[in-house]
Amino acid sequence: MAGSAYSKCSTHGPVSGLPEPPEGPGIHVYLFCSKGGERYLSHTSGEFTAEDLCISAAEAVGITPLCHVLFALYNPQTRCWYSPNHSFSPENSSLVLHYCMRFYFRNWHGLTKNERAVSRYALRSGASQGASPLLEIASLEYLFAQAKYEFVNEVVQMEEGDSEEELSSLKNESLGMAVLHLSHQAMQMGCTLQDVADKVSFVQCIPRSFAKYISKVNFLTKLRMRRVFAEFMRTFQQHTVDKGRLGAHEVMYKYISTLEHLSPSFGTETFPVSHLELREDGGGGSSYSNTTHAQGALKDNFIGPTTHEIMVTGTQGIQWRKVSGQKALENPYLRNDYLKKAKPKSSQPNANTANKWTSFCDFPEITHIAITGDNVCISTQDNHCMEVQMNSSQEARSFISLLDGYNRLTAFAHHYLCHEVAPPRVVLSVANGLHGPMHDDFVLLKLKKEIEEGSFLVRWSALDYRRIILAVLNKNENGSKPSHKQFRIQLKGSMFCLEGWDREFSSVKKLTESLKTFVLKSGSESFTVKRCCLPKQAELSNLLVMREGVHTDSLFLNMTQLRFHHIKDKDIVKKQHLGSGTKTNIYLGLLLVRGGGEDDEDEEFNNNSTDRKGIPVVLKILDQNDKDIDMGFLETASLMNQVSHSHLVFVHGVSVKGSENIMVEEFVEFGPLDDFLRKEKASVTPQWKFIVAKQLASALNYLETKRLFHGNVCAKNILVARRGLEPGTTPFVKLSDPGIALSALSREERLKRIPWIAPECVDSGAPIGNVADQWSFGVTLLEICNNGDLPMSGSTLFEKERFYQQRGRLAEPSSQELASFISMCLTYDPVERPSFHTVLRDLTEIMIKNPDISPSETLPKTDPSVYHKRYLKKMRDLGQGHFGMVTLYLYDPANDGTGERVAVKSLKQDNGQASECWIKEINILKSLDNINIVKYKGCCTELGGQAVQLIMEYLPLGSLKEYLTKRKLGMPQCLMFAQQICQGMEYLHFKRYIHRDLAARNVLVENDSLVKIGDFGLTKYIPDGEIYYQVREDGDSPVFW
């Protein structure tokens, strides 16, 4: 096929075998066949895109919108394809272009048994996946005409023969192709094969170099070849045509399948590149960092020597290989020559032997593509990246438009990988929520899945390029099957109009929004337009090509069963406390593993573990007070144990120790991202932040393709594995496990997660697919831009809930482009949020522009009295009283051991009376400020504000009672302590408080010269106007004191 390899044509002048193009300026599109017999479509005025020209060519040929996406425009002079959005100005140029099938899948006809079959998706028939033919009749006939032209004019590269026998076989195959060529012509004319052969010489149906060879041989050889060909025709007519074994369609199938055999490069495109690098995405040196180099290469018109080749095929994806130095210097555009002699066989290795092809990826694995000048960077789901430098920016665009088209055909029919080559109609469809020209069966199936009456779907017509179909669902009240009706929308220039309505709209979206205020009538039926069914990622329909052996279902994981590695209790060692999560405590630990010696098999029976190696891990231990959420905890462990991505934290497994459930996951050195950003904000650059955001999006895209969601995306759940602040390095982050599922959290706990939790999840408690992660990603991106902070961090639960009820907007970055991108993620309508494929694509393009991402508003200062549970690292218990217990913690936001020690008091039991007294004690201590009163530092809330911990200064010498038993005090020191206690009590009485529990155990010693009064759990307030307090409430009272 045209452009099957980079040897598009063998000459730089006009291609032989074509009628002369029209003279004068304009864009002249050559057609291999057409309904009206015309061979050129000339466009001489106006502005056109390549997509516009392809649509006019498709209409002239009779190719439907379904198969239109297989075709493109090819320039035989430059040997390059045009991307669909390429713009032409006919008045300023004179171009002859070929309208060709570019996107090709070998063995679509199914005649080659050892190659995978290809078809379109269809609705299931029984237990098997349904299938429908890839090509319609008009597309088949055009492909046949194109194949004949390319075979005869040697546009495709034929397989080289290494012996006389192989050359002879190749010539015989060529004669067989001529028989098929003439047979099809005979069937079309309704005459015999011999009749056609009398009028058309077989020499016109074989490769031109073969015809040239025949013209130069002697008369006897020519006679012998004519006799051989005549025998071919007689046998074919007698045993095949006359017996009705082959019709016109079968002849075309046979011709194309034989051409695939003769030319292994048929249906492929190969690109020479001057640089190729494979690496992990985000690992530095990507195309966006080489913008200057790429543009400089174009400016100097310098093309380096070819070092590699990249081959793209519809069935095998992207492959590459190195090119030897000698081959790189040869002219790659020479055609096959039937006159050459067979190469003598030699036992010596050939220095020019091509290297084997190495697979890089298949099209569904591509997440996004970036282009700067002639540099192209292809990123995949497994976080790998191929960066290449092409010979020109036009060839780079040709290359990525090829990948983009194949991706739409095999993976995501309504998505584009790169803005630079995006087809205008796909861009229009994305903006308006349009589906492609789907079959009616898929339209009805999608509508029937909708619960809401008035659901509608908008798609391009499968027959008319300027018509859009509005399909509306009507659920009948009498219990009968739901019905649907299709209404036509006409595209008139750039305006859209519903048939039967004289109003015109600038977009389909505006038209359907207007229809929501009307009732559509069709006969006696009435239809309302309420909710649009938008295209979804990985949605199967006849728009996608199904390749045998590539099953979309294999991409998805079955999460209905719990699967994780069981770790024995003796294999883990618990170390220091690192902090707390939602209903979990987190510890540093060691996972003991075998050393890999010969005696490993006996180690199971050996209790001596001194020779075993310990891997640093993090132990997440579920609170034993929350046994009702065991299943949710294990489901999270199962999820993380079944996924594998470089930017997801690895979960080793689960250990069950009695009633204690422990999740064991990898230890990530530099801790949570928000803490890292606050600590290193002076060193972190905008590019650093973009790289981190892309890595997070890559992990979430991986989950999205597996039809999984995370449910708790935020900066504190992103861990920094590599700082990326040193010269020549880039950051590397990993998304940690989501913790307890939202469905297991109380409403107050979900409210506390605002603004990270998606609005629709606050009440339901369960994420609605990946759209919840898309919201969380938008908030987290703002968090990254703001160096780990958000304006709502200090808001109350009421304020947070009110923010969502009023559909509030968070402060956005200064960059208008980035702000618009974040707004797409933070839309309150879940179906409007972009998929992570779109997120990766748009984020990469914004990153290349390096915008200002500083916050547009100054964030309020954080309240120093608000302590976060995650930073409290338990050291030891200090003691307990009647209501509460006191624990020593290290409050370490920097996660480097430099935090302050604090005493944390919490209730031993949670009941109404105790909680009321507890809040009163906190409020009392908060109002006191005296050197002889224990200093209030703040509060730590958990369970969505239902539980509050009191944070106080830590006095290392303990209570006065303990101090007196350990030390012998002189009279002056005793009097000094007594005086300080009196001063503290005087201050309390001045504030109209009665302590009611003053005792040596409730007086704390800071040092040998200072004591402070503590424990205000029983303290009472004397109301104004009264001089004493009388006990009226039931409850405990310290009668001895």
Automatic annotation (TrEMBL):
Transmembrane portions of the chain: none
Enzyme class, spelled out: transferase
EC number, as in UniProt: 2.7.10.2
GO BP annotations, alphabetical order: cell differentiation; cytokine-mediated signaling pathway; growth hormone receptor signaling pathway via JAK-STAT; intracellular signal transduction
Domain Protein kinase intervals: 572-848, 872-1041
One example GO MF annotation: growth hormone receptor binding
Active site: D997 (proton acceptor)
FERM domain ranges (all copies): 25-414
UniProt cross-references to SUPFAM superfamilies, sorted A to Z: PH domain-like, Protein kinase-like (PK-like), SH2 domain
A Gene Ontology cellular-component term: cytosol
Cross-referenced SMART domains: B41, SH2, TyrKc
Region ranges (Disordered): 1-21
Keywords associated with the record: ATP-binding, Kinase, Nucleotide-binding, Phosphoprotein, Repeat, SH2 domain, Transferase, Tyrosine-protein kinase
Reactions accelerated catalytically: L-tyrosyl-[protein] + ATP = O-phospho-L-tyrosyl-[protein] + ADP + H(+)
Binding site for ATP: L878, G879, Q880, G881, H882, F883, G884, M885, V886, K905
Any Pfam family matching the protein: FERM_F2
UniProt family annotation: Belongs to the protein kinase superfamily. Tyr protein kinase family.
Name of the protein described by the UniProt record: Tyrosine-protein kinase
Organism, as annotated: Cottoperca gobio (Frogmouth)
